[in-house]
Amino acid sequence: MSIAAKKIPSCSELTVRLDKTDSSTETNTLFRFCFGRDASEQSVDGTVNIPIPLQVLGNGAKFEVWETSEPVHSGRIANNMFFAASKSWLMIHTTVFIDDTSDLSSLTQDIYNNMLNEVVQRNYQDIVRTWNYIPEINKGDGDSERYRQFSLGRAIAFESHNCNIEALPAGTAIGSAAGTRLGITILAAKSDNIRVENPRQMSAFQYPRQYGPRSPSFARAVLLSQCEFPLLLVSGTASILGHESVHTSKLINQAEETTLNIISLRDAALKQTVKAQSFSTGSLRIYVRDKADFPLAVDSLKKLLHNSDHSTPDYIVLLGDICRSDLLVEVEAVYQASHALAGNTASA
Ligand code: 3EB
């Protein structure tokens, strides 16, 4: 008796795609990001929509849809905090109004404490990704800058949950316009996954004191090694070498340095797993600080905008402030691993 060798993806498989139309709210949608929206109308049983309050400049996608083959349930945790969960994955999302009277450090600490408590209570153990959208992220001087206050509160929350630096999630921290709401989203997994750091960059959690009272709590990338076709969740990546911003005020050079950083990170990830021979397809979010930089940024990132199988990765360009005021462009990505055995011979 011969049994076909066709492999069925394991149940925990997760996929990510950009979508131009409102086609999803299918049952296998875990959650979806909605670009260009500040508030969302949540219904307790439907797909959880995560608003991203940034203007869409390029490529027109309206949604980034995260899907799983597992049954999904969702609901409200508290007034403005929502979750979506399957057997392997838990997403928690909240938005909060802030103004100049807000203590962003303690507010962030409270939000993260609540979210981390939920993760523990619901029996998920590995926080793999966070997205943080902070209104006017560069407002305030020195250590009182909003981004630095946010980083301080986040660091204390992770520390008080005994989340050590080897277990930090991949991250994004981007600034939105005045008057939008602070938006924080976390994704947790049932089992442990692999952290990837970048040999070209100092680990962010080790940045020296000059960048703020507490260093940022994120890993350069997390490889979802529990999946049969692992996803590489690449943190927001910018023109930083070691710990220093390089090519300040030069958009093209920053985009090229960012490209080198992401390629280096992908190479580092391949060395840490036997489950991936290459990363063949991807989905990218490109953030630019200045609207006018958009076409040039896309052009200068061209090496990232080709998959190794010669297809083009999906991408979206968003108007957002980078968390260091001397940076003009940042890119985050999701890459899907392919196996040599699956017939793919190209390398990433
Ligand atoms: C950097 O490499 C650029 O604080 O969560 C990128 C990704 C950055 C995530 C965060 C910050 C964060 O330091 C900034």
Question: Which descriptors apply to this entry?
Answer:
binds 3-(2-carboxyethyl)benzoic acid, single chain, 348 residues, alpha+beta, disordered C terminus
Rg for CA atoms: 19 Å
User: Numbering strands along the chain, what is their spatial order in the largest sheet?
Assistant: 4-18-17-20-14-13-12
Q: Please, how many helices?
A: 4
Elements, N to C (H/E): EEEEEEEEHEHEEEEEEEHEHEEE
Bound molecules: 3-(2-carboxyethyl)benzoic acid
Beta-strand fraction estimate: 25-35%
Structural class: alpha+beta
Head-to-tail CA distance between termini: 38 Å
Task: Write up this protein.
With 348 residues, this protein is α+β, with helices and mostly antiparallel strands. Helix content is 17%, strand content 33%. The radius of gyration is 19 Å and the shape is globular. The two termini are 38 Å apart. The protein contains 4 helices and 20 strands. 3-(2-carboxyethyl)benzoic acid (3EB) binds at residues 132, 151, 171-173, 204, 216, 218, 235-236, 238, 240, 323.
Write the layout of secondary structure elements.
Blueprint: E1 14-19, E2 29-35, E3 49-52, E4 56-58, E5 63-68, E6 73-78, E7 81-85, E8 89-96, H1 104-121, E9 126-135, H2 146-160, E10 170-176, E11 182-189, E12 194-196, E13 221-223, E14 231-237, E15 240-241, E16 244-245, H3 251-270, E17 278-288, H4 294-300, E18 314-319, E19 321-322, E20 329-338
Parallel strand pairs: 2-3, 9-10, 17-18
Antiparallel strand pairs: 1-5, 2-5, 4-18, 6-7, 7-8, 8-11, 9-11, 10-19, 12-13, 13-14, 14-20, 15-16, 17-20
The site of 3-(2-carboxyethyl)benzoic acid has 13 residues, from strand 10 and strand 14.
